[in-house]
Design a protein that fits this description.
Blueprint lengths: L3 H4 L3 H8 L9 H22 L1 H4 L6 H7 L22 E4 L2 E3 L2 H11 L6 E5 L5 H8 L3 E6 L2 H13 L5 E5 L12 E6 L8 H5 L1 E11 L6 E8 L5 E9 L9
Parallel strand pairs: 3-4, 3-6, 4-5, 6-7
Antiparallel strand pairs: 1-2, 7-8, 8-9
Helix pairs in contact: 3-6
Length: 249
């Protein structure tokens, strides 16, 4: 989710998408297909509007194609289905949210996923980000600490045919050591610092995208890069607001 400092420039996005809410004159599949196309156009505009922060005016075309393909309405509660393609986070229960489409696209772009990559996701939520990564051709390992969400996401992903996604219930702070190293790590909850176990599980030449900061302070979306010699560099991308990473740590 974008921090309010940036979020204010995106209000028009939701207004535009409201014009595409389900009506009575088209089939459900056509309604959602058009909403996805509209969502992609909004993301493209938002990328341009935040180009000062992210240092690019366009995202990887592969990412945008996947954003237009994955059916976000299948990853939200039925009560939120009408808003599935609005450019905003939505509640999915247990105090958690499905991330704003713009943020999902941006984090996927920053992760620089190539077909065949092993990608670790921390914070499965509804499974939407995992599905996006899988559509990019990655072998995805995703961890969710909230057991009911983890179980439902696993069932949903399997039902939708995402067999390249492996799910686990647990504390994502410690990663998935048995499957390391990973080409990329995507963290969808804010941590007070970059977890050392995740840095260790990142492959040389790999990247991690993680929001860093507390619930009550400005969080920054951070790109962590490990070079081939194992040296770590970090770069702040833009201010965001995510639910906090939880666990024993």
């Amino acid at each position: 989710m974008l921090h309010p400092f940036i979020k204010k420039i995106f209000h028009f996005s939701c207004i535009c998408l409201c014009l595409l809410l389900p009506g009575s004159n088209t089939t459900a599949s056509d309604q959602f297909a058009e909403q996805r196309r509209a969502m992609v156009r909004v993301i493209e505009t938002d990328v341009y509007l935040t180009s000062f922060y992210i240092n690019k005016e366009k995202l990887d075309p592969r990412v945008m194609a996947v954003m237009g393909k994955v059916e976000r309405h299948k990853f939200v509660p039925s009560s939120q289905e009408a808003w599935a393609y609005a450019n905003q986070p939505l509640p999915i229960g247990h105090g958690q949210t499905i991330s704003q489409p713009y943020i999902v696209a941006l984090m996927t772009d920053l992760a620089m996923v190539d077909p065949g990559d092993k990608v670790l996701e921390i914070g499965t939520g509804s499974g939407y980000q995992a599905a996006i990564l899988a559509e990019m051709g990655a072998e995805v390992f995703t961890i969710e600490i909230v057991e009911p969400l983890a179980e439902k996401a696993a069932e949903r992903l399997t039902g939708l045919g995402y067999n390249m996604v492996k799910t686990r219930t647990g504390d994502g702070y410690y990663g998935w050591k048995e499957e390391a190293p990973f080409d990329a790590i995507v963290v969808t909850a804010a941590a007070s610092h970059v977890p050392p176990p995740l840095i260790r599980q990142l492959k040389p030449g790999g990247v991690m995208v993680i929001p860093v900061g507390s619930r009550f302070m400005v969080q920054q979306l951070v790109l962590v890069e490990k070079d081939n010699a194992g040296k770590i560099t970090t770069r702040q991308i833009l201010p965001v607001r995510f639910v906090p990473l939880t666990g024993d740590h």
